[in-house]
Amino acid sequence: GTLPSWRLDYDREVMKQLQGFHPDLCVLAGYMLIVGAEMCQRYHMINLHPAAPGGPTGTWQKVIWQLIDSNAQETGVMMHLVTPELDKGPPVTYCTFPIRGEPFAKYWPEIDRLPSTSPARHNEENPLFKLIRQHGLAREFPLIIATLKAFSQGKVKITADKRIFYAGGKPIKGYNLTGEINKLLKGEIYESKELLG
Prior knowledge:
Pathway: Purine metabolism; IMP biosynthesis via de novo pathway; N(2)-formyl-N(1)-(5-phospho-D-ribosyl)glycinamide from N(1)-(5-phospho-D-ribosyl)glycinamide (10-formyl THF route): step 1/1. Residues 9-98 form the Formyl transferase N-terminal domain. The protein has helices at residues 5-17, 37-42, 60-69, 107-112, 127-152, 178-185, 193-196; strands spanning 26-28, 45-49, 74-81, 91-98, 156-158, 164-166, 170-171, 175-176. By secondary structure, the chain is an alpha/beta fold. The longest helix has 26 residues, at 127-152. It starts with a helix and ends with a helix.
């Protein structure tokens, strides 16, 4: 939908504050506002989103509940190009992880026993909800860092017409950094009793 005029005024004020700068890339993480078309055109902006490409949209809470309600097998974290449509920009980088098997396996039957209308099923203290969040959150900063590294090394590029390319000029639908992120996390998630539930 169309943004209200006060939101577009806000974007213009942000652009005014950024006038003296000429960033190659702007990173939004926790910005939580839809950005208008004018600002999207002016800057190459990428946004951190708590789902894999093609996954649920919205806040991290909504994403996790959609994953649980749809009995998803995996999820992930991505950086996508910011567009005026919420969480619908093309993926730039991403990583994925399973939410079945260990350490998630014991929590799925518990949640499956709860009626879909039960408040306990949609409580943020739910162990499955918390575990999915912990595993996603653990990947967010490593993905931001790996994404910036990929841009600085020329592995990923955004063209003037807002298309995503891999080194050598090949168009891509997101640069998969799962292997790199898992290497960064090895010893953090997989050896942490807190994250293993």
